[in-house]
Amino acid sequence: MVAIGGNGVKVGITCYPTYGGSGAVATELGLALAARGHEIHFITYQRPFRLPVFVPRVAYHEVSMGQYPLFQYPPYDLALAVKMHEVVIQHDLDLLHVHYAIPHATSAWLAKQMLAESGRAMPVVTTLHGTDITIVGQDHSYHAITKFSIEKSDRVTAVSEFLKHETIRAFGDENFRVDVVPNFVDPAVYNRDCHDVAFKRELAGDRPVLMHISNFRPVKRVLDVIGTFAEVRRTMPAVLVMVGDGPDRSAAEDEAKRLGVAEDVRFLGRIDGVAPLLAIADVYLLTTDRESFGLSALEAMACGVPVVAAGVGGIVEVVEPGVTGSLLPVGDIKAMGAAANALLTDPAHWRRQSDASVARARAKFGIDDVVTQYEDIYHSVA
Ligand code: GMT
């Protein structure tokens, strides 16, 4: 164990820096920790998408990989371990906090072994986010190394009870403990009252807005988003705003044409700051078939947007059905369309669910409480 110097902790944070919930959570956590006086070092291959250019007490260290003709697959995990080792020594870090097990927890373990050779202890905290456990970690090629890397972490957290149980089911719990630390939202940013909603008129005129934000991977079932919207459009004028990009975007655009609603669907592409967009939405759609948490649903709720979602995985811990939205069977676009319709045709019902969404997001997933939970974890290992 090493002692934390002064009041602040020096933390190296590694995450996937591109579009995605785990990178968003890791970055928002780092920024919140820095605002509390801690020193944060992001160690990633690209500047995290939610990291502004300059923030006091926050540094960004880019992992660069030497190329060589023999490397058909350049070993990023080794380059990351080397950068972690270097940053720990140069900046006298107290611990490494990695988000998404593969390969980050493995690289952190390697860095820890290298540091141990020079007599330096380096605690590693690993936060599990989702497919690192539910898909990638259970693939035969990665199962053993995922298990090993989790077991070698000093603390392991999961973003939902669902993910904790999935982790234990897939890897046992003989050699490690998983604590649930949920994802969080900053109500000062995700707040319907804090954004200029004038551009709602540009996007939708006076029609209600349904919204979906994701990386358009197959798991998100974005064609179901279009299908759900088409159900709504059959009974009332409305606009669907699709934010993000990914493998299924073209298929979603084709589906909108096939269903005759293309004129009312706006594909905005990837946008990093989504709070102002969520602030103009009336219903948030999340039709995914697998989700350990559903950060975008929480961000929507914080903006007073009721959520119509598939009742899978950790979403059931975020959305309270009948209170802050509806949870329905995967693929049941008729039921999802009906739930959205019910909200959009009854202003009093919408207002109740909107207010309840804001209240639940703040009470159960407020940034202050969750950041304190992470601080407590850091103090338990460093
Ligand atoms: O696990 C993934 O698919 C990627 C990951 C990400 O980087 O966006 O998403 C997961 O982490 C988010 C943040 O904790 C959660 O909100 C998502 O539910 C989760 N995705 C899945 O479980 C599919």
Textual characterization of the structure:
With 382 residues, this protein is an alpha/beta fold. The protein has two domains: 10-184 and 366-381, Glycogen Phosphorylase B (Rossmann fold), CATH 3.40.50; 192-365, Rossmann fold (3-Layer(aba) Sandwich). It has helices at residues 21-35, 76-91, 104-117, 131-134, 140-152, 161-171, 200-204, 222-233, 249-258, 275-278, 295-302, 315-318, 333-344, 347-365, 367-381; strands at residues 10-14, 39-44, 58-62, 95-99, 124-128, 155-158, 178-180, 209-214, 239-244, 265-269, 283-286, 307-310, 325-328. The chain has a seven-stranded parallel β-sheet, with helices on both faces. The protein has a six-stranded parallel β-sheet with strand order 10-9-8-11-12-13, sandwiched between helices. Helix 2 (76-91) crosses helix 3 (104-117) and helix 8 (222-233) runs parallel beside helix 9. The longest helix is centred in the C-terminal third of the chain and has 19 residues, at 347-365. The chain starts with 9 loop residues before the first strand and ends with a helix. The structure holds ligand GMT. Ligand GMT is lined by residues 16, 20-23, 25, 129-132, 159, 183, 219, 290-295.
Structural class: alpha/beta
The low-confidence runs, each spanning 5 or more residues with pLDDT under 50, are: 1-5
Helix-strand string: EHEEHEHEHHEHEHEHEHEHEHEHEHHH
Strand line-up of the largest beta sheet: 3-2-1-4-5-6-7
Biggest sheet overview: 7 strands, parallel
CATH topology descriptor of the largest domain = Rossmann fold
CATH homologous superfamily caption of the largest domain: Glycogen Phosphorylase B
Shape: globular
Distance between the termini: 6 Å
Calculate Rg over CA atoms.
21 Å
Mean pLDDT value: 95
Q: Helical residue percent?
A: 40-55%
